[in-house]
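subagent[fold] <- orchestrator: predict structure for attached chain, return tokens only, no commentary.
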Amino acid sequence: MNNLNPRGNLSAAIDPAESETARLVGRARVMMVISALTTALAIAAVVTVIGYRAYSGANAIGPITDEIVPLPKGAKVISTSASAGRVLVLLDINGVTELRSFDVKTMKQMGRIRFANEP
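subagent[fold] -> orchestrator:
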């Protein structure tokens, strides 16, 4: 009857290969738990930073007043873009392309870049 049970006597000592396997499985479980906790901590940090930036008033620009910015005669606005507290306006002034930068709060001109063809 003992021949039917492949492990033999259950009260006998555990095979050394099985104990080594059990230790490896235990180590793998510990590493998986550490990895899961590290991932959860990283996700919590990212969500916290996103929430802080979304709900803090530090990035609020405030009210923008109506402003008229004079352009040279014959100037055409090609495109505009706003980013990081600046408004960029790409102009075509009598065949010369120019990029002007304005501060969002004050609408004062911050800079100007002219693009010209090389001779």
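orchestrator: received. Logging for downstream: The chain has a mean pLDDT of 83. DSSP finds one helix and four strands in the chain.
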